[in-house]
Each structure stands twice: as structure tokens, then as C-alpha cells.
Amino acid sequence: MLKTLVPRASRSLLSTKAPHLGPANLRTAPSFQIVSQNQQRRRGYASEASDYDIVFIGGGVAGYVGAIKAGQSGLKTACIEKRGTLGGTCLNVGCIPSKSLLNNSHLYHQILHDTKKRGIDVNDVKLNLAQMMKAKDESVAGLTKGVEFLFKKNKVDYIKGTGSFVDEHTIKVNLTEGGETEIKGKNIVIATGSETTPFPGLEIDEKKVITSTGAIALQEVPKKMIVIGGGIIGLEMASVWSRLGSEVTVVEFLGQIGGPGMDLDIAKQSQKLLAKQGIKFKVNTKVLKGNASGDGVKLDVEAAKGGKNETLEADVVLVAIGRRPYTDGLGIENIGIELDERKRLVIDQEYRTKIPHIRVIGDVTFGPMLAHKAEEEGVAAVEFITKGYGHVNYGAIPSVMYTHPEVAWVGQNEAELKSAGVNYKVGTFPFTANSRAKTNLETDGLVKILADAETDRILGVHIIGPNAGEMIAEGTLALEYGASSEDVARTCHAHPTLAEAFKEAAMATYSHAIHF
Amino acid sequence: MRPSLILRATQHRTPLIKFIGKHNPPKTLDHTPKPHPASPTHSLPDSFKTYRSKAQQHGPLGGQGHASPFQAPTSGIMTYGRIGGTPGELLGPVEPKDGEYFDRNDLPKRFWRAQWTEEEIEAVNSGGAGLFA
């Protein structure tokens, strides 16, 4: 009986024993084979109310990863992105271009200052900043086009334009190439990311007063640069321009650099090593106001602990005091979903807003503003839709600062454990005692592991040293698996590698390191 | 002196990490809205509850605790729904009983028979040739 409900276009797939069903039998006429595809689609079951199973607003790391996962899961998927290229802040103006500059500026700095002792005499070394920027741009272009290819491969419709909510299921898109369109989604995922938090009183022009976006695109090396904010972004950019010849001063309001989460011991050592490279620090210092009306920029600063006021001058000031969620033009007022006091979209444990089919992932909602966290959420949000369950462990999300040496950590730091009243033990191992670090002539730094005093379960891993950003993956895996320091210590690590320092730190945590 | 096998076995260290087999879906899923693990306030606005009690998306989303023939189970899949909140397989067979017939018009409109377009009628009458004329 219900067979009559099958759309005519699909009935040829059914048994030929179907009884006479009136006009539907006309399907056997040859003409039926050549009606247009649109007519066949018209006769399908899918409700016209939903064009897409899932629509992502924002093609950054959260949105594009989620869209690819959705495409792989068989959902009819669209991704709206207004930048013109996919990848969001990370690929276009964040993680990726900054890593290109960090790597190449480090090479330049090393050639200038660190070759003679290695037995390499290099003469007439010159900086070609335009070529360095070109290399960066080529890396970015290659990766963003790669994401576009992945969209095609996984049948994700890429809609270039600015999306805003008309109602709970409808999104109006102002197309980049002109005109507008409306699309509907059964599920909608907001992944609009974040933007730099401006400094009150200083207008960003991306020339004299810059954000991280301007800091990766300067046309010449500024003679003097001030960085407001000693967090990860500020210190990475400070490193780049300091290596290229700028006189850089970092002004940090708090007493330690590195931002939230970095262990105090590691932060102190990092500050010491960066200062050795020529970066000046003013910690516990508040920027009162700035003036960019002249040739350069003047900043009035005040030392927090009874220090005197002073005026700092620079050619360029980088504002790196943090990032804030970006929801401009999204039309959230049309659907009435909530923002918290820091303008983050409020979600539940499955990334749902109060409207269950509208989910939010990435920087625009809770959690650390990190690309890899956003990626995890992109996959998890789709899995909640397709499977009913997903997984992101917010207690095991690594952080990495790509200075030299790199700093990386995962889990809790000592201050957090102390404030939580956790009884813990500490094991450290310095790279000076690691054979590979010795041969590489890069012995600054250490690995520090924090483990529960009773169970030996690893609670936090903090690394400063060469390759810390790669090595932290082992710590993250240990944390995710709930490993003990003894588990890591008893796992064979290849010799000679930097990773042996990790094993030795684990040995020091539960017993004693061999080589220190 | 060599330790006995029993002694060696007792001294064998048991790692904290255990292989517990392939990842399996959780046996029960509770989709009731709860605060996001990274939420600084560890709370949800009341709107999450009130929206669900009013919303009509695949049937009312709220209504837990209401006596209703459409009441969904409070644990297991789709805990937050009533109509549409129960898996189809739990609703019993869909085949009509003897002497019972379903009327297409009782279904939502999208399942109704689509009207023939002029183009389709022409295609049928002409054997399709008319489309290429």
C-alpha cells in the first residue's frame, strides 16, 4: 500500500510486481526517462523547506573541518565564507602566515648569529623582506586552495558571501560577487570566529597601530616596535621583528608573560631567553593611553607596583591584548540566541544554542581560542548530529608558543593544582642533559611533568625547549589516556632524540632520571 | 637465585593505560541540555528550557514530565522530544491491518502525489520526442 507513496522517479528501483496504480503506471512510458532532473527532484520526498542538511556560517578552521566531516558523513552541506578564501584567521592571517615568518626569520637570525660556532662561515647576509613575505603568501595560498579542493572532494557547497539569519532555518547571503541569495538548513552551525580586541583610544590603521594581521604584512622592518600584551601572539610577533632587526619592547599588564595557562617557572625561563635575544620586557606595566597622531606612536605607561609613569615611543605599536568573538552582521537578533558578558554565544554540552538545530563552535563560543580546539569541535558537532554523541576533552587541549625556544603545555600548571588543593609531584629534565639537544647546540629549556602524588596519573606537562610544539603531542596523548608518569617512563623512546627528555622527565617524576 | 614464576608475576607492573577494545557508542545518551564543559558559569540560561517547552521542531521539544501519549522516554535516544522523540522502531509495525487502508491525504502535504506539469504530460503524450522538438 505504502509503495504508492514512493516518488515516481524512484519506482523503477522497486519490484515489477507492483499492482496497477492508476496514473503512476505511466512511468513505464519512455518519456519518463527523459523528464528533466529538476522535475525528478521535485518529485522526491525531501521537503522543500530545507535546502541543506547542514549549513556552516564561517569557513575558518571550525567551519571548514566541520563541513568536510559533514560531507563525509553524507549530509548535504554548505559553507558560507565572506573572506574570499577558506581557512579563516588561522590559515589566512594567523597561525600559518606567522609560522612562515617565524621559521624564516629564525633561519635569518641563526645565519647571522649562530653559524660560526657550527663551522659555517657565511658572508654578505641580507634580508629580502619582500621575498620572505612572498614565501609566506605562497604557503597561505597553497593551503587555502587545498581546503577548497577538499570541499569539492567531499561535495561541500562553498558559498562566497556574508551570511545572516533571516529566521531559525533561513540564511540570507550577500554574495561577494554581487547579489544575494537565501538558503535553508535543517541544521546550522555558527563558526564565525574571533577578531582582535582593540585597545581603547588607539585606532587600528594596520600601519602604525597594528594587530597581528598587520604584523604579518609590514612592508619594512620598523626601527622600534612596542607590543602591548605579552601573550602568545604578542611574543611570536615580537620574536619575528626582533630577529629581523627591530628594537622590540613588550608591555605586559600581568607579572608574567605567556598568558593564562603557562606555568610560572616556564614563563620566567621563556622571558629570560627572549630577553637574551634582545627583546625588552616591561611586566606589571599598564598602558594608560596612546597617541598615534605624529610620525610614530607614543604610549603613556604606568608601572603597577608604585613605579613611575613614563612615555614610550615607537614606529609601530602592535595591539595584542587578546581576541573577542566575532558576530557582526550575523543577524542573531533575528533568532534571539544568547551572548554571555564576553559576547560569546551560549551553548550546551552538544554545542546547541537554545534553538537545538543551531549549534556554535570555535572561537565564537566557550573555551580557548585555539585552532585545534575549533577543529575538534567541528568534528564533534557533526557527530552529535549524525551519531548522537561526540567527544572533545577540554582538559587535554595543548597550547604552543612558537618562539625560540618553543613553549608548549597541556593540562594543569602548578598554580592551578595548588589552588585546587591537589597533592602533586614534579619531575623535570633539562635539555642540557639530552644528547640530541647537545649535538644540535640547542640546550636551552626543560621538560616538566606534574603527576598526582597518590596515583601517579599525569596532570600537566610543560615544556620549554627545541621542538616543544611537537613533543607536547606525547603529553597530550598521555593525558587523554590517563597515563601515569611511570607508563611514559617505561615506554621506549628512540636514541638520540629530544623526546628522550620527555621520558627522562617522566622517570624523574615517579623515580629518578638516569642522565641528570 | 632466580625468582619463581609466581613471584615474577606478582612483581609485574600493571600499567594505568589499559586497552579496552574498539570504541563503542555509549549505551545510553542523554541529550538533555546541560552546561558546556568550558562554560565559565557552569550554567545555562532559562531560555534553553523555555524554548524547548514551546518549540515545534519535529514535534514539541520540551514537555518532559508531562503526561502524554507521546511522552518520550527520559533516558535513551532523543530524550528531549515527545512527538518525534521516540525512535520509529519502538512505535510498532507500519503495515496496515487487514481491511485497513491508509489515505495519502492523512500524511503531511509533502508526501501527497505531485501534480502533473504540462511539460510532463507533453512528454508522456509525445513519447518524449516533444521535449527535443
TrEMBL record, chain A:
Note the SS bond partners.
Answer: 90-95
Annotated transmembrane regions: none
Question: Any other comment in the entry?
Answer: The active site is a redox-active disulfide bond.
What Pfam families does this protein map onto?
Pyr_redox_2 (PF07992), Pyr_redox_dim (PF02852)
Q: Which domain of life is it from?
A: Eukaryota
Keywords associated with the record: Disulfide bond, FAD, Flavoprotein, NAD, Nucleotide-binding, Oxidoreductase, Redox-active center
Tell me, which GO biological process terms does this entry list? Answer: 2-oxoglutarate metabolic process; cellular respiration; glycine catabolic process; hydrogen peroxide metabolic process; L-isoleucine catabolic process; L-leucine catabolic process; L-serine biosynthetic process; L-valine catabolic process
* Natural source organism: Capronia epimyces CBS 606.96
Cofactor remark: Binds 1 FAD per subunit.
The molecular function terms of the Gene Ontology recorded here are:
dihydrolipoyl dehydrogenase (NADH) activity; flavin adenine dinucleotide binding; glycine dehydrogenase (decarboxylating) activity; oxoglutarate dehydrogenase (succinyl-transferring) activity
The UniProt entry's GO CC annotations, sorted and at most eight, read: glycine cleavage complex; mitochondrial nucleoid; oxoglutarate dehydrogenase complex; pyruvate dehydrogenase complex
Pyridine nucleotide-disulphide oxidoreductase dimerisation domain ranges (all copies): 397-506
Q: What is its EC number?
A: 1.8.1.4
- The FAD/NAD(P)-binding domain, residue ranges: 52-378
Cofactor(s) of this protein? FAD
Active site per the UniProt annotation = 495
Query: What is the taxonomic lineage of the source species?
Result: Eukaryota, Fungi, Dikarya, Ascomycota, Pezizomycotina
In the record, the note on similarity to other proteins reads:
Belongs to the class-I pyridine nucleotide-disulfide oxidoreductase family.
Specify which residues bind NAD(+) according to the UniProt entry for this protein: 229-236, 252, 322
List positions binding FAD.
99, 163, 192-194, 363, 369-372
- The protein in question is named Dihydrolipoyl dehydrogenase
Q: Which reaction does it catalyse?
A: N(6)-[(R)-dihydrolipoyl]-L-lysyl-[protein] + NAD(+) = N(6)-[(R)-lipoyl]-L-lysyl-[protein] + NADH + H(+)
Automatic annotation (TrEMBL), chain B:
Organism ancestry: Eukaryota, Fungi, Dikarya, Ascomycota, Pezizomycotina
Ubl conjugation recorded as keyword: no
Q: What's a BP term from Gene Ontology annotated to this protein?
A: 2-oxoglutarate metabolic process
Q: Which domain of life is it from?
A: Eukaryota
Q: What is its main location?
A: mitochondrion
Name by which UniProt lists this protein: Ribosomal protein S36, mitochondrial
MF terms per GO, please? oxoglutarate dehydrogenase (succinyl-transferring) activity
PANTHER family given in the database record: 28S RIBOSOMAL PROTEIN S36, MITOCHONDRIAL, ALPHA-KETOGLUTARATE DEHYDROGENASE COMPONENT 4
